[in-house]
Write a structure and sequence with these properties.
single chain; mainly alpha; about 65% helix
């Protein structure tokens, strides 16, 4: 049925690395994470505002209403 050797041999391995940034690098990483968080929150608020205006699911195609 199953070849257990092949299943074990084909498993992927995950590696973890510990970062040891310098103080300047840590400040830069924090700045990037702060900008990414702000962008995510801005886009999420934009999506909520769009939903409040349209009151339709995000995945809905607005062309369906025009065709009927």
């Amino acid at each position: 049925m199953y070849n257990t050797y092949w299943v074990v041999k084909s498993m992927r391995t995950a590696y973890q690395y510990k970062l040891r940034p310098t103080k300047i690098q840590a400040i830069e990483i924090d700045r990037w994470l702060s900008m990414l968080c702000a962008q995510y929150n801005y886009l999420l608020a934009d999506r909520f505002n769009w939903y409040e205006q349209c009151r339709s699911p995000v995945n809905a195609c607005p062309l369906g209403k025009l065709l009927t």
